[in-house]
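WARN  no MSA supplied for this record, continuing single-sequence
INFO  ligand: S-adenosylmethionine
INFO  echoing inputs
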Amino acid sequence: MAQQNWEKSYKNKEIPWRNFSPNLSKILNKANIFSGVALDLGSGTGEFSKWLSDQGFKVEGIDFSEEAINIAKEICPLCNFSNWNLENLENYHFKYKKYDIILDSKVIAFIEDKEKYLNVIHFKLKGAFVIQSFLYHKEKPLIAVNEEKLEKLLKEKFNILDKEVISLINKIWVEYILVSK
Ligand SMILES: C[S@@+](CC[C@H](N)C(=O)[O-])C[C@H]1O[C@@H](n2cnc3c(N)ncnc32)[C@H](O)[C@@H]1O
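INFO  complex generated
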């Protein structure tokens, strides 16, 4: 989806994916990571960043929607948000050398060169990479990823520590916890 369409969604407050009370406790417990530095890719309005920051993580968020970043900065003043296109993640000036947690919540479906994107994530990761994505969405099929293809790509670089598939009416959702070693 083009950058201006995301901007339009945020301006018009058409943000159905927004989760006002995220909680990654179960995931952090499984990954056994409770502190350090976190990177929130496609951070949107910053609720996940804020949650991680409240747990004591130093958080960096990246998104290419100025509108979303402005909201995120209000939600989490302690977080560090940058406007950047994730298609060029390899040229981004990261604030930290390595990250204990890297999160992709509903973003990878929109990344064209997923392999390049995952290579950078792998390089910057020292802990766990958490990915949440739709596998099926009745109303919006374009926001879903193909499970087989995604898993094949992920397994080339990461070990899958845990995977949970959640089925709701008209939606199938998957959550992976991946470690780099
Ligand atoms: C479905 S929203 C998810 C937002 C947030 N992660 C969440 O779970 O609430 C996808 C986000 O990814 C951002 N995004 C999509 N493609 C991007 C790209 N190429 N570069 C940077 N951000 C991107 C959008 O601006 C949007 O904020």
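The first strand starts at residue 37 and ends at 41.
INFO  checksum written, moving to next record
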